[in-house]
Amino acid sequence: MDELAVKLFDIQAVKFGSFTLKSGQVSPIYFDFRLIVSYPAILEKVAGLLWKKCSNNATVDLICGVPYTALPIATLISVTNRVPMLLRRKEAKEYGTKKLIEGDFRPGMNCIIVEDVVTTGTSVLETAIELRKLGIQVTHAIVLLDRRQGGKENLSKHGIELSSVFHVEEIMASLEKQSKVDHKVAEEVMNFIRGNRQPILNRNPRLHVSLEERRSSCKHPIASRLFDLMLAKKSNLCVAADLTSLDDVITLAESIGPKIVVLKIHVDILEDFSLTKIMQLKEVARAHEFLLMEDRKFADIANTVQQQFHGGVYRISEWADLITAHPLPGPEMITHMFGDSSSDSRRTCGCVLVLEMSTKNALTNEDYAKEAAKWGLIASDVVTGFVGQSAPQSDFPGWVQFTPGVNSSSVSGDSKGQQYCSPAKAVLERGADIIIVGRGLIKSPDVVATAETYRSEGWAALTQRITNP
Ligand code: 5BU
C-alpha cells in the first residue's frame, strides 16, 4: 500500500498546494486519478486491489464504472476476472435508444459500482439510481480513495456498502513515512478533511432534479400525470378534505380545485357516501385537473385488501387515482391487490406507500422506512411514491414524496399526537414534493385565499430546492 501511495504521488496523481474544488472550497490536496491510464502497471495494481475488495464482499454478477475516470479501471477488472461490465453514459444520447446504461443484463442481477474517488457519494448514487431503475440490484460500491466526507454514511442510507482501498489518512501516513511530505503538510491536509464533512441529508439527488427530468423517470402513468399537473398549475399542494359530508367535499373541491394537484379524502368518514356522489367529485377533479387520493392505508393480507380495494360499498378502485398503503404486510399485498397484469387499476390508480408517519412516537423508524422503500422498488410498476417525513427514504426520482402534517400556523401539532411543520420546512428540510394540508386550510374562514397561500409557499420552496441545491 505504501508503494502504491508513493507511485501515485510520483506520477502527480496526488498533489499538494492550493486547489479550488468544484464546491468552491480551497483544498491543500488534490487527487487526479485520470493520470493512471498512462501508467499500465499502476492501473493493473489499482484494478487488482479494487477487485480484491469487491470479491471479498459481495456476489458480483456485473460491474459498472462511474464515468469517466473509473471506466478503464472497471474494464480491466472485467477482462481480468471475466466479470461482465455495464457501461453508463453521462447523458442519454439524442438519437437511437436513449439508453443511459448499455450492456446485457437481467433484472435482479447484482452490480458492483466502481469509482476512483468518493467524497459525498453523489456520483455513485446517481449511477446506482440508473441501474436500479432497470431492476438491477446495487448493494456494494468499491472505490480507490474514500475522502471520508460523508460518502460512506450517505451511501449506506441508500443501501449501498462502500469499500475503499485507501483513506486520505492512509495515503498521508504512507507519504510521510516515505518522506514525500513533511508533518506540517500532513497535518494541514488532515485538518482540512476533518473540517469538511458534508451534510448528508441534502445530498439525495432526487431532491435537486428538475420536475421535467423526474417526469421522464416515472414508471407509472399516474406519477407522470402528477408531475404534468404540478408543472402546469405551479402547485405542489394536496388538500386533506377531512369533512364528514361528501356534498361539502364537492363544494370545497369546486372552490379550491384550480390551486391543488391532489385532493385527499378518507372515504370511511363520509356520512353521505354514494357512488353517484363520488363520481360527481371525480367530475370536479377532471374539470379542475387534480387527482383524487383515497387515504385508506391498506394493511392486511392480499386476499382481504383486494376485496377492500375493489369491492364493498366504496369500490375504491373505480374512482381513486391514488391510494395509500402500509408496507407492513410486504410487497405481495401491493402486487396482488391491483390484480393481474391485465387489470386496468394497475394503470389507473397508483399506490403511495406510507414509509413514515407524522405522529409522535410513530413506529415507522429509519430502518423500517429503508426496508419498505427497498421492497417498494420490487412493486415499482404500481408504486407511484411514498408518504414520508424525511428525505433519504428513496432517491428514485420518478417517485413522489407526500408529506402530511403541514400547517403554517404557529401550532406545533394537535392535542392528539399530530405534529406540524411549515410548507417550507416540509419541502426544504424533509424532502416533500407534495405538501398535504388538512385543518390548516379546511378550518380557515377563506379557503380559496388560504389555498393560494399554501400553493405559493409550497411551490416557492420546491423551486428553491431544485434551483439552489
Ligand atoms: P391535518 O388536519 O393537516 O392534521 O390532516 C393531515 C391529514 O393527513 C389527515 O387526513 C391524516 O389522516 C393524514 N396523515 C397524517 O396526518 N399523517 C400521516 O403520517 C399520514 C397521513 Br400517513
UniProtKB/TrEMBL annotation:
Residues the record lists as binding substrate: D242, K264, S358, Q418, G438, R439
Coiled coil (residue ranges): none
Pfam annotation, one family: Pribosyltran
Keyword Transferase appears in the UniProt entry: yes
UniProt pathway: Pyrimidine metabolism; UMP biosynthesis via de novo pathway; UMP from orotate: step 1/2; Pyrimidine metabolism; UMP biosynthesis via de novo pathway; UMP from orotate: step 2/2
Keyword Transmembrane in record: no
Active site: D295, K297, D300
Membrane-spanning segments: none
GO biological process: 'de novo' pyrimidine nucleobase biosynthetic process; 'de novo' UMP biosynthetic process
CDD domains named among the record's database cross-references: OMP_decarboxylase_like, PRTases_typeI
UniProt keyword annotations, A-Z: Decarboxylase, Glycosyltransferase, Lyase, Multifunctional enzyme, Pyrimidine biosynthesis, Transferase
Domain named Orotidine 5'-phosphate decarboxylase: residues: 236-454
E.C. no: 2.4.2.10, 4.1.1.23
A single GO molecular function term of this UniProt record: orotate phosphoribosyltransferase activity
PANTHER family: OROTATE PHOSPHORIBOSYLTRANSFERASE, URIDINE 5'-MONOPHOSPHATE SYNTHASE
Sequence similarity: In the N-terminal section; belongs to the purine/pyrimidine phosphoribosyltransferase family. In the C-terminal section; belongs to the OMP decarboxylase family.
Stored HAMAP family: PyrE
Name recorded for this polypeptide: Uridine 5'-monophosphate synthase
Lineage of the species this protein comes from: Eukaryota, Metazoa, Ecdysozoa, Arthropoda, Crustacea
